[in-house]
Amino acid sequence: xxxxxxxxxxxxxxxxxxxxxxxxxxxxxxxxxxxxxxxxxxxxxxxxxxxxxxxxxxxxxxxxxxxxxxxxxxxxxxxxxxxxxxxxxxxxxxxxxxxxxxxxxxxxxxxxxxxxxxxxxxxxxxxxxxxxxxxxxxxxxxxxxxxxxxxxxxxxxxxxxxxxxxxxxxxxxxxxxxxxxxxxxxxxxxxxxxxxxxxxxxxxxxxxxxxxxxxxxxxxxxxxxxxxxxxxxxxxxxxxxxxxxxxxxxxxxxxxxxxxxxxxxxxxxxxxxxxxxxxxxxxxxxxxxxxxxxxxxxxxxxxxxxxxxxxxxxxxxxxxxxxxxxxxxxxxxxxxxxxxxxxxxxxxxxxxxxxxxxxxxxxxxxxxxx
Length: 370
Known about the structure:
Region (Disordered): 342-370
Shape: elongated
Keywords: Ion channel, Ion transport, Membrane, Transmembrane, Transmembrane helix, Transport
Pfam family, one: Ion_trans_2
Protein name: Voltage-gated potassium channel
Number of helices: 12
Domain RCK N-terminal: 135-254
């Protein structure tokens, strides 16, 4: 077992992908060449200015070409010995200036090799630091069409991109997630060791958007085992699998195929109704669905009498429809699911987005928007 441990660490590092700035290889090489030439030119100037302190083997005074020659053989550590410093000043310059430049020149020349050796340690450090900072983040399993839409909605809802981690077996999909500023893990999310690399035990939300329902069940079981308290939302293709996913630990299930079919059917019967549903599902324009806290002035009111359109009330963790007699009057601590304009307009207010709590605190308007 101990012999396999380094391989396991290497595999873990190689499977975790973090976003980073890309620099073209030719640009990197060009930069190193310019640095090397700059160091060479600096030594040439230093030697030529102090040429009286150097002696050639034939006893002649150093020319500019001799200075280039000396700089070249010195920086490459060849050192034929035909040109040598003879005065104390020239030798001091060699010690305090030429020798450090020689070392820097060699580092630039072998920079590619050193970079390869250092990349592994750097990646291990970055990944360790990244993992240590992951708290209350969101893990998205699957970065296909549904996964990308879910991530877009989360980011538009105010969740930072660096607090979202994508898991997908495709390196190309994870690379796309990295390009969007997300962390990613390449691997099979049905395996516990893959999900552990996302620090799932510290996550607050898990979104499962696999292509197959059996995989969704396995991922949900594994995620719930690693984190009993996170909110797990699962996309399921067949409605008959919803009870199994509920038993596996899913808090919310979304039947993607049925939902699309219902929208298509409603749009066929009533194009206007289809347009409204599409508007509600889009983000940033028209109407949106959001969850907000009940405002102090709304306490005691009926959900029917709010400035925006309430469709449900959340009380004690339970969701009630707006017409349920249980929530005929709103109480402090309730939250309401409302339909409201996506942006503030003079004739269309968005209550709860910028008002203060009676105790001087913000009302937590933190919206779960779609």
